[in-house]
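Forgive a beginner's question, but might I ask you for the amino acids of a protein and the tokens describing how it folds?
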Amino acid sequence: MSKAFQYWWASWSGAAANIFVGQVEAPLLIRPYVSKLSNKELLILMTAGMATVAGSVMVALIAILESSFINQNLIQHFITASVLSVPAAIMYANIMIPSNTITDFDENKVPKVYNSTMDAVTRGSSDGASIAFSVGTILIAVIALVFIANSILGFVSSQFGFDLSIEIILGYLFAPIAWLMGIPWDEAIIAGELLGIKTTLNEFVAYPGLATLDNGELSERSKLITFYSLCGFANLSSVGILISGITAMAPERKDDLIKVSLKALVGATLASCMTGLIVGIFI
């Protein structure tokens, strides 16, 4: 596979791991090599991480959605979405950084990360706690910033007799993309607003919004397309989480991670939307 796609095996292994584990856990599988990755390979890793959802998150989302998708095999849909999104993420990463540079590293010499089993246990526990703390603080900070921005927009817009928020603005921006995915234009703004909610907040806010839509707001076909396009960690919080998580593994790559982070967010969002487009062709 690495020869077919002309990538170093570590980058696509990390990308493929996102099908099963989270966006921070996947890079841990290739931790000894993270510091050696090129910017393009870092972009592949980050884009794939934000274009998929972790297995544990799938279980939580199924509990939220099962009442709205009664006749659907949700776990099958989630796994299908993640499998389709990984190659789409790699494709968009290639478009954004079209370099052919492949990391040259001796695969027979695996860098030694830990000196002993006890060292692995203690450092692993410390790193895990640090990453978990960073994830929590970043989520709180981003949600707070979005709330402040929405409060300002709401106050200003109310003076002119209408309501405005970041989600509403992104809803109109995403509406053409939703239409291109195959959702009728009269439903595209609703789907676009859900995509906007996922991008500014997270999927745990967007999916309940999809589940609580009134009958008739979205057709069953449009709901399924939207379901697939929402399947991913592509949001503002995830950018900070990935930068923080991977920086803990390779502190010297922090500047490079920041440099490619916005591209990763855009690429992951488009990858999830492409998955929705593909599903729309077959249903």
Remarks:
- The radius of gyration is 20 Å.
- The first helix runs from residue 2 to 5.
- The chain has one domain: 2-282.
- Residues 8 and 67 are 43 Å apart (CA to CA).
